[in-house]
Amino acid sequence: MTSYDYLIIGGGQVADDAARALREHDADGTIGIVSSDEDAPYTRPALTKKLWIDPEFGEDSVPLNTAEDTGADLRVRTVVTAIDRTAKQVELEGGERIDYGKLLLATGSEPRRLDGPEDERIIHFRSFADYRTLRHLMTDGARAVVVGGGYIGAEIAASLSLNGAHVTLVFPDEVLGGSQFPPSIAERYQKLFTDHGVELLPGRRAEMLTVQDDADVGVTLDDGTAVGGDIVVVGLGAEPRLDLARHAGLEVSEGVVVDEHLRTSDPSIWAAGDIIEYPDAILGRTRIEHVDHARESGAAAGRSMAGSEAPYQHTPYFYSMVYGVRWEAVGTLDPSLETLEVHHDTAHSVVYYLEDRGRPVGVLMWQIDGARDAARTVIADAITDRDLLRGSIG
């Protein structure tokens, strides 16, 4: 039977950073990575951004070279069906079992799906394989229907429009970005898309995928409207893969519950990335889905598994970039909260999201570089003085 000192379930960014941290702190321990993905670990943010807009960044730049750099044994296209905590084994599809000394759950998330027919031209976008399929289908002038106005949907819509597609973007907000940004910023954000020719269908939800009579693929909206094109890309976010942990009897709430060392309710099992509910040093107990968190929590879990007593104290930031405009944020972006907007000029702004007598719980930095630590400090120090806030980030 195969056995590893450290076994990682999942083959994304978390697995890469965890394996590197393990190897840095334990030169001899055996590392196994079991992934259901068809590709070795790769950099996911590039799939919606850099691969479409940077001609110097090709598909060969996407793999992270995890196995080569760490000596980990990597299995792709391999599904773990169960964890036997008593025997300290995992079971694979087909019945094979693998022993572990310490186990890391890095199962990541599954894209939310729309009901309807399966078709190569309909892509629930998440993986490197999805990128390759979409790139294969993309031709100059292709008609693309993109569903979802969040990170994936907005970034894909922008990238496709910059690559010659005629893009229709369907999203539920009345103004694109309205569920995150105050009106002044949301209107600025939406104008980026209309200025680049993207057709917007605001206030609409896609109910069903379709293959239409004229051979178009498309979606039926909640008002009964049918929208068709050559390609449909669904970018409706993702759900954390929690079933494996839940069926193993680990404590699971909004995510897999871990302590400050990213250890689960089983002392031999850690978890990191999208799937964890953890005690953030600034934000409190939370669950976060962004690459900064994947990287930092993966590395912290690896160090902890190798014996480090240092807690995970990083408060992640998140970001997006469309049409060359980048924004970053820390904490909660909820425009239903009171907001304090500081506009440095027509291109650069900071927005503070306030609750509980003006206490900041989130900071949006629009085209502001190098201010993540300052944003964390504003939240951690609970600065409520408006004049101090206005001068905190510039």
Automatic annotation (TrEMBL):
It comes from Brachybacterium fresconis. It holds the Pfam family Pyr_redox_2. SUPFAM superfamilies: FAD/NAD(P)-binding domain (SSF51905), FAD/NAD-linked reductases, dimerisation (C-terminal) domain (SSF55424). Residues 4-298 form the FAD/NAD(P)-binding domain. The keyword Chloroplast does not apply. Signal peptide: none annotated. The keyword Ion transport does not apply. Keywords: FAD, Flavoprotein, Oxidoreductase. It comes from the Bacteria. This is NADPH-dependent 2,4-dienoyl-CoA reductase/sulfur reductase-like enzyme. InterPro entries: FAD-oxidoreductase/Apoptosis, FAD/NAD-bd_sf, FAD/NAD-binding_dom, FAD/NAD-linked_Rdtase_dimer_sf.
